[in-house]
Amino acid sequence: MSIPQIVLDTNVLVAGLRSRRGSSFQILSLVGTGKFDIHLSIPLVLEYQEVLHRELPNLYITAEDIENLVAFHCSVATRHQIFFLWRPYLPDPKDDMVLELAVKARCDSIVTYNTRDFVGLERFGLTAIGPVELLRIIGVLS
Asked: What are 6-40's pLDDT values in tens digits?
């Protein structure tokens, strides 16, 4: 079985940093272990930083921890430059940049809590899955 190629939607990072008990935290703990490969673009990294800093009062980490987490993700991810736009394709324009990255990276899935916002991904050979589903795919949950 090949290693899943994924893009982590920002809401998965936020959820994983709000609670250490859920599936999102498990996924964050597994980044860089070889269970799956993450893919990043500059726009997505900037969104991670902006949203996590905005959510800081609701998170169990510090601003410095956010920068370290994002830097770690950048160090283990496959980084991509996007030279094409599919916009507007999805209802939320911020989701379009996630789609564009997933298409460019030839990912298998976008991992998100908002799977309904990613309808029509099949056209691009992608699926939108929740964190629990990723954990099942990689064999962490049965």
From this structure: 999 999 999 999 999 999 999 999 999 999 999 99
Query: Residue 79: which of 116, 43, 30 has the closest Cα?
Result: 43
Alpha-carbon distance of 140 to 97, in angstroms, equals: 29
What CATH homologous superfamily does 5-138 map to? 5'-nuclease (3.40.50.1010)
pTM score of the predicted model: 0.95
Residue 59: which of 26, 92, 15, 89 has the closest Cα?
Answer: 15
Distance CA 1, CA 90 (A): 30
The encoded tokens of residue 77 equal 């991810």
Closest C-alpha among 25, 142, 49, 43 to residue 101: 43
Residue type, position 19, single letter: S
C-beta separation of 111 from 105 below 8 A: no
